[in-house]
Write a structure and sequence with these properties.
The complex is a heterodimer of chains A (about 120) and B (about 110). Helices cover about 0% and strands about 55% of the residues of chain A. Chain A is mainly beta and about 120 residues long. Chain B has about 110 residues and is mainly beta. The termini of chain B are far apart. The relative contact order of chain B is 0.33. The chains are: A mainly beta (about 120), B mainly beta (about 110).
């Protein structure tokens, strides 16, 4: 089965500190793409960072970085210097082939609250 | 601002009623999608459209129909709403199917069927 597991339903962090959100996934595919999306209270899903499974180098995007462990099927998100605007639901997802197209497999999300 | 626009943002329906959720994008994207988001289940693909004039079923198409009216617009129709269709619905678009630089999502429609 192709699944994404986010084991932390809720987390909180003090402003300016660092927090890591966990994500594990299961797939038999060898080539896929991994994503973290942010969903603030406005509900819009916003792409935070992406990682290509065939690349060993971890992706970074400003204060956001990932720790990608392909063998362990782990894809955690680290947020450095947390800001109040980072308060949101965070979804881990991967994209893989599906019936002639591609589909996302999303996790159930981690609700992150940044405290002032 | 460029992006994906969904209407309405909120809707309450009675069981058996019909309605159409509207989605429009102004980024000249070729592919469009409808997802539903349920608590504890992440997002699931309902239907997608690879390009203007084509539509295909996703993971959970039962009870829904779609129309790709033109390149910009992709609507989702519930012919006879059921309480199991209570959910948040997201439209998304991308340059091509499986565009692995990510999709652009709308802000969602919260639908309640009573």
């Amino acid at each position: 089965a192709q699944t994404v597991t986010q084991s932390q339903p809720e987390m909180s962090v003090q402003e300016a500190e660092t927090v890591t959100l966990s994500c594990t996934y299961d797939t038999s595919e060898s080539n896929y793409y991994l994503f973290w999306y942010k969903q603030p209270p406005s509900r819009q899903m916003i792409l935070v960072i992406r990682q290509e499974a065939y690349k060993q180098q971890n992706a970074t995007e400003n204060r956001f970085s990932v720790n990608f462990q392909k063998a362990a099927k782990s894809f955690s998100l680290k947020i450095s210097d947390s800001q109040l605007g980072d308060t949101a639901m965070y979804f881990c997802a991967f994209m893989l082939p599906f019936s002639g197209t591609y589909k996302y497999i999303f996790g159930t999300g981690t609700r992150l609250k940044v405290l002032a | 601002n460029a992006g994906v626009t969904q209407t309405p943002k909120f809707q309450v329906l009675k069981t058996g009623q019909s309605m159409t959720l509207q989605c429009a994008q102004d980024m000249n994207h070729n592919s469009m999608y409808w997802y539903r988001q349920d608590p504890g289940m992440g997002l699931r693909l309902i239907y997608y459209s690879a390009s203007e004039g084509t539509t295909d079923k996703g993971e959970v198409p039962n009870g829904y129909n779609v129309s790709r009216l033109n390149k910009r617009e992709f609507s989702l129709r519930l012919e006879s709403a059921a309480p199991s269709q209570t959910s948040v619905y997201f439209c998304a678009s991308s340059w091509s199917l499986g565009f692995n630089y990510g999709y652009t999502f709308g802000s969602g429609t919260r639908l309640t069927v009573v």
